[in-house]
Amino acid sequence: xxxxxxxxxxxxxxxxxxxxxxxxxxxxxxxxxxxxxxxxxxxxxxxxxxxxxxxxxxxxxxxxxxxxxxxxxxxx
Amino acid sequence: xxxxxxxxxxxxxxxxxxxxxxxxxxxxxxxxxxxxxxxxxxxxxxxxxxxxxxxxxxxxxxxxxxxxxxxxxxxxxxxxxxxxxxxxxxxxxxxxxxxxxxxxxxxxxxxxxxxxxxxxxxxxxxxxxxxxxxxxxxxxxxxxxxxxxxxxxxxxxxxxxxxxxxxxxxxxxxxxxxxxxxxxxxxxxxxxxxxxxxxxxxxxxxxxxxxxxxxxxxxxxxxxxxxxxxxxxxxxxxxxxxxxxxxxxxxxxxxxxxxxxxxxxxxxxxxxxxxxxxxxxxxxxxxxxxxxxxxxxxxxxxxxxxxxxxxxxxxxxxxxxxxxxxxxxxxxxxxxxxxxxxxxxxxxxxxx
Lengths: 76, 352
Description:
The complex is a heterodimer of chains A (about 80) and B (about 350). Chain A has a single domain (about 1-75), classed as Orthogonal Bundle (Non-ribosomal Peptide Synthetase Peptidyl Carrier Protein, Chain A), CATH 1.10.1200. Chain A is globular and about 35 Å long. The longest helix of chain A has 15 residues, at about 30-45. Chain A starts with a helix and ends with a helix. Chain A is built from 4 helices and no strands. Chain A has about 80 residues and is an all-alpha fold. Chain B has about 350 residues and is α/β, with parallel strands linked by helices. Chain B has one domain: Peroxisomal Thiolase, Chain A, domain 1, CATH 3.40.47. Chain B has 10 helices and 18 strands. Chain B has helices at about 35-45, 60-70, 95-105, 120-135, 210-215, 235-255, 270-280, 295, 305-310, 315; strands at about 5, 10-20, 20-25, 50, 80-85, 110-115, 140-150, 165-175, 185-190, 195-200, 215, 225, 230, 265, 320-330, 335-340, 345, 350.
């Protein structure tokens, strides 16, 4: 899951040097369109739409991944 | 629950008019670098748009479309019983442009006419009124007009909206038919989110003043006055990605419609990325999802009928097709219709 997620994020950000601990909002490539793409990608892959209020609390790519995993646990 | 159903009423013909002036998003605004503009085009799918000149209004575009429709279909203008004009950019604050159009189009004084102030959901809401009126025993022909000149609403200097909106006008004829033509429509609204797409100034809550007209630099660097349109893109996205596919799915389930039963899906032309995304979720094959936003951008309530005219004229000629349509946006409000177009007359696109 981690690799898939990172592959998708690299594609969205058109940057293959990103790491899980990057604060994505600080990346030069991050903008409102990356936001759309990220939310849609997660919905595609995990049937999960992260509410904007929740997303605004996530800082690193790892935080996003954790959020997805937590949601999966909840729905088990 | 606003869930509507009709029999024996159909959309019999549609015409559309667009301005001749073409805007290319690659070089429209100095406010966007070449790279930024390319990124917006790639994501939204909106490459070009049409803009009116300063003298042309939504009602002018609708007049051209309606005149074409009535002439092409050889409709006696005395048989038009009702006219609905849907727009957020009417000619005047008072009176309703629809009533002016009744006279301009040469319709009789026995025609009922009024305006409907809705944006991107306006084709769905307009159809609900047109179909309901047509259910009356003495109303046989209803003209539904949708017109927008969004180019006059949004400034070049707003990051979130400058490259999205375009102008256009359409006319649809709704009438009784011998065919059963079962038609279903769901309509929804959420006034809690009224602020996410709005023009704050110039109404009666915040009347026009030097303050409302003052250009201000916003948090994201955009420059606009309070009489320009504004949109909280992320909030609109949240709504579109959740509420809209849910409504479409529920309408399909209630009507036992599978993706195979649908010949064409015409969504409001807001953003190709978002509608592609939820088409995939709804398992509607990509080739059934029809787009015109690459040519005309987001034209609010005009976008669904404009897409039908621009992209499906040949496909609908002398044939019977089932359409799923969904409009969503300002209000917030949204709706989904499933209907059958049977030899629906699609006019050639008018350019004025």
